[in-house]
Write a structure and sequence with these properties.
The structure is a single chain. The protein is mostly helical and about 180 residues long. The protein has one domain. It has helices at about 5-10, 20-30, 45-60, 85-95, 105-110, 115-145, 155-165, 170, and strands at about 15-20, 70-75. It has a two-stranded antiparallel ribbon. The longest helix is centred in the C-terminal third of the chain and has 32 residues, at about 115-145. The protein is elongated and about 55 Å long. The N and C termini lie far apart (about 45 Å).
């Protein structure tokens, strides 16, 4: 398998989000609706909201895996735009693969591996993506339920990101260096 085969295997996948977030996704995503949603700021398609939720989950340094049967899939990764953000998410996940829960692999094993081995790897990659996005959707749902007024700002999505920990030890996966007083 070469890099193009791996890319293709990733791009055909349709990640899932928890069905309980469908009303939220519909409210803060336009999904082809160009008329707008009244007084609330919105993303474009569901996948843009999903990508944003992934970034939130990553910044929080927390994952919430989907439980079997609670997921709804949508657009294949190849259709996601903007492409640079989609590619950033994939590269971020590829760089964190040694931290996947219950999954061990090596790059060489992918290159020399069977199609089944590669598909298992891609499945784990997508599950990680879904777990971070699910955590981000939990965060967004809480904001929607408790601070809906935030969503009237044209800068709501920037504001939410600014409220998140920027150098979160869990999201960066680095050890905090403690000073002489033991404060990190």
């Amino acid at each position: 398998m070469n890099h193009q085969d791996l890319r293709d295997a990733i791009f055909i996948r349709k990640p899932k989000y928890n069905v309980k977030f469908k009303p939220l996704m519909e409210r803060i995503s336009t999904k082809g609706d160009t008329t707008g949603k009244g007084d609330f700021s919105t993303f474009g398609a569901f996948y843009q909201t999903f990508m944003y939720a992934f970034i939130i989950g990553l910044r929080l340094g927390e994952k919430r895996p989907l439980v079997a049967g609670e997921g709804v899939d949508f657009a294949p990764i190849s259709n996601w735009k903007p492409a640079p953000l989609r590619d950033f998410i994939i590269i971020t996940l590829l760089n964190r693969t040694e931290k996947f829960d219950n999954f061990q692999w090596e790059w060489l094993s992918l290159e020399n591996g069977s199609e089944e081995h590669v598909n298992n790897f891609v499945t784990m990659l997508v599950r990680e993506m879904e777990a971070y996005a699910n955590r981000g959707l939990i965060y967004l749902q809480d904001k929607w339920d408790n601070e809906k007024i935030l969503f009237t700002s044209p800068f709501v999505f920037v504001d939410i990101l600014q409220d998140l920990p920027y150098n979160n030890k869990l999201s960066l996966d680095v050890d905090v260096v403690k000073d002489a007083n033991g404060i990190g």
